[in-house]
Structures are given as structure tokens and as C-alpha cells.
Amino acid sequence: MGFVRTDGQERVPRATPAKGSGTQGPVRPARAGAPAASRSTWGTDGRAARGEQTRRLLAEALVGLVDAGAPTPTARQVASWAGVSTRTVFHHYRGTDGLVAAALSLQYERHRGLLFPIPPRGPPALRVRALCRQRRLYFEELTPVYRLALARVDAGAALARLLAEDRARLRRQLADTLAPEFVARGRDSGALLDALDQSTGWEAWRALRDVRHLTAAAAERAMAFTAGRLLG
In this predicted structure, what is the pLDDT of residue 159? Predict the structure, then answer.
């Protein structure tokens, strides 16, 4: 993964003065007809855009590090990977907790399309297999930064909120995919949803992969088998 080196400083071009104008030194060229207030807004917007680019660069650097096998990257490691100073990390995130939240948001942004809707019709076994295949792809992408986030969940409300939103998103997908089966269970539908939610969530995936040391394909089969059995 490559990153563009930036030191967060803008280079102001030196304008060429007109002959006989007497203008000296660096001058920011003004847009024709733009009032002073507009030029001020233009400069502010430019700084905001550069700041946002730097924040994303740092989040990408953290994701790159954990994907490369660094379980708990430091601010200095992130800065080195991104090609900026360590001070830049603290300037934009006030430490690594905020940066981890940004990295988690970045991964959600990149991979949430893997969790596309599965129509609630047809044999439930086929829907369960499709759902577990989606979760295999999703969890495999999210697991490195997810581990880091869960290790820090007590350190910040932003991380806890992001993790809760992801769990809720997965639970809603499960409820929508198997809606006919939940309706058929009547009063037991809530318990069934809880059981399926627990057995097809990331914690279950982590147990299959990190504790049982199953391959991704074997973990997917085990997850689908458990969900199928719960449905009866």
C-alpha cells in the first residue's frame, strides 16, 4: 500500500509581478471578480480539505499496519508509515484512540457493500449459506482492525458506538433475511434471533478462526451448520 508523503504545509506560488508594478515577494493570485470575503472562505476551505486528506492518510496508514501484522501500532509507527511527523498524528487525532475509530470507520466505508440484502424468500438453507458467505468475506476484511478496536473499547465512546452500530447492522440483516422464519416462531422469535445473532456474529467468527484455528472456508461451513440447526 503506497501513501503520498505530506508535511501538512501549503506551498504558496510566487506570482510574477507586472512590469512597473513594484510588487515584491510571494503573492497569492486572486480570482477575478472575487470579493475579499470569498477569497477568505476559499483559503479556509482549502485548509479544511487538506486536513481531511491528512486524517484519511493516517487512518489508511493504521489499516495498512494492522493488515501487515502489527497488532497494536503506535503513533510513531503510523506516522512513519504515512510519511508524516508523530506530532501530526496528535494534532489530528489527539492520540491513537481517535485514530482507531477513524480506521474502523474507513473499513466500514470500504467493505459494508459486502453485506447486501438477501431477499427473504426461497429455501432458508440457501439464505443461511448466502448470509454466512457474506459474513466470511466481511469479517475477514474487518478482523485486523476489529481486534484493535475491541482491545480499546473502554478507552473511548466513539469506538464503542461504532462497534454497537456494526452489531446492530448485522442483526438487522439477519432479521430481514430470515423474516418468514421468525414470524413462524411466534413468541420464540426473539430468542431465536438472539441465538442466531450470537452464532453468526464476529465474536463467533473470531472463536472459529483464532481459537479453533479453522480455515475461513471451514469456519463458514461451521457457522452455516449452526445457524441451520437453530432454524430446525
Answer: 85
Q: What's the length of the chain?
A: 232
Mean pLDDT (whole number) for 90-114: 89
Contact in structure between 98 and 106 (CB atoms under 8 Å): no
pLDDT of residue 167: 95
Alpha-carbon separation of residue 126 from 20, 134, 229 (angstroms): 80, 12, 13
Q: Where do the H-state alpha helices sit in the chain? A: 36-67, 75-82, 86-93, 96-111, 124-151, 157-177, 179-185, 189-199, 202-206, 216-231
* DSSP secondary structure, 90-138, as one string: HHHHTTHHHHHHHHHHHHHHHHGGGS----S-S-HHHHHHHHHHHHHHH
Query: What is d(CA 174, CA 131) in angstroms, rounded to the nearest whole number?
Result: 8
Inter-CA distances, 223 with 25, 43, 112, 126, 136, Å: 68, 53, 20, 13, 9
Rounded distance, CA 165 to CA 45, Å? 31
Burial 152-171 (b: 16+ CB within 10 A, else e): beebbebbbebbeebeeebb
Classify residue 25 by its DSSP letter: S
Indicate whether 173 pLDDT > 90. Answer: yes
